[in-house]
Every structure is written in structure tokens, then in C-alpha cells.
Write a structure and sequence with these properties.
The protein has 1 helix and 6 strands. It has a 6-stranded mixed beta sheet with strand order 1-2-3-6-5-4, with helices on one face. The protein is globular, with a radius of gyration of 13 Å. It starts with a strand and ends in a 7-residue tail after the last strand.
Length: about 100
């Protein structure tokens, strides 16, 4: 579990869950006040792990899906070495806010 503080309004979000490689290991963002802040949190998580977007990695695709009573964002990224990975974020907590 890690925490970040967004500078704009000092809103604290917490990351829980797993490594994000599938729905069972999804990264859970808790404490986002709305969808915009939650989506920002997805990119901040990626940048904390893999460096700045467009320098350490680039976004290839982003999609939202429903799986049961959960809502997920799936971000597909490509690293500088050409490797591609998908990261699953559980957005149920802030979806629709």
C-alpha cells in the first residue's frame, strides 16, 4: 500500500490491491473525490513505478470495462524497449462521481 498527495488540493489517495496485471490483482484507488482525480491517480501510479509518461513509457490504449459489480480501467502501455503491458485499475470507488 502506498500513498500520494496531489498538490492541487492535498487530497490523499491510497493504492491497495495487487500488481495490476489482471482483474484479480487490480490496483485499487481509494479516496479519489471524483473520476478526474481517480484517473489522474492511475497515471501518477504508473509514473511512480515506470517514470514520466512519454519518457519511460507511452500509453497505447485505455478502456473501461464492467466485471460483475466492479468497474475497471485497463491501461495498455509500451516501454522504451518495446515491451507492452496492461495494468488494471479498480475504479469502482470513484466511478460516476
Amino acid at each position: 500500500e502506498s500513498q500520494i498527495i496531489l498538490k492541487e488540493d492535498l487530497q490523499m489517495m491510497t493504492y491497495k490491491g495487487g500488481n495490476g496485471l489482471d482483474s484479480k490483482e487490480a490496483i485499487i484507488i481509494v479516496g479519489a473525490k471524483d473520476e478526474l482525480e481517480g484517473i489522474d491517480g492511475e497515471y501518477i501510479w504508473l509514473e511512480e513505478k515506470y517514470g514520466e509518461q512519454d519518457f519511460g513509457w507511452e500509453l497505447i490504449d485505455q478502456q473501461s470495462i464492467d466485471e460483475g459489480d466492479k468497474k475497471y480501467d485497463i491501461l495498455k502501455i509500451k516501454f522504451l524497449n518495446g515491451e507492452e503491458k496492461e495494468f488494471w485499475f479498480d475504479i469502482t470507488d470513484f466511478y460516476g462521481k
